[in-house]
Amino acid sequence: MQQAGKNVQFHITTRLIKWIALVSMFCDHFAKIYLSAVLNGAVPGTGMWVAQHRGMLLSMYEGLQYFGRLAFPLFVFLLVEGFYLTRNRWKYLSRIILFGLISEIPFDMGFRFGNLAPSAGKLVEFSYQNVMFTLAIGLFAMIVIDLFLQKTAYGSAGMVIAVLIAFAFIWLGNTLEVDYHGYGVASILIAYAVKTYAVKMRGANHTGQGQKNTETGWRILEIGLLIIPLILQSSNEAWALLDVILVAFYYGKKGKPAHKWFFYIFYPAHLLFLVILRML
Asked: What is the pTM of this model?
């Protein structure tokens, strides 16, 4: 509670952004894994009820997908924040890869079930990979580019080569068919470029409240620009521009501590839950 006479300020913490991203992702996946199955008559015992409420279910399906568009840009934003805050970037990368591997079977069962043949022992297919691998490619690209730029002291030639490295990782995202393809990797690297420049400029011309306002401006620019490649992939991603409002109230505070493993475990766990729900 603020003291009388002081302005009440609303700030969003890192923890709250994580929760909003998780809820948004869950809603999106609930629509795509479970509601789509209900609408297509693939869930036993729901046929008559679906026929009576189809219009409502279609509206719910669309609404949840639109809300779900908020998730990936927020995860990208948090990934780049984590890149600068983590004590060990390689361990950070290894955790994302580990949970990408753990999540692949429930991801395929949820989104690629038509391509699977469980009776034949095929539980994994590789035509499309889960979003953890998108984040992993982006994080690995940031590590490589950052190490390279440190050795070249951010010279002009080094910047050109860094851009070429970025395009190589974008190509890798397309080749490996990760979620959001190369557009997702491009989003990560755009966010990284803005954040890197903002870090270099931090404190150069502002102190106190002026510096906070400048940092907020850089964050808004970062989230706004990283969404552009996603919109180029799909116009529905324009709903993610609502994330700009959230980031405008983010001041770089972590918030109440939470077990970091929960946010990793949630991804495969919620996919498995939705797969089981669809089978009931």
From this structure: 0.89
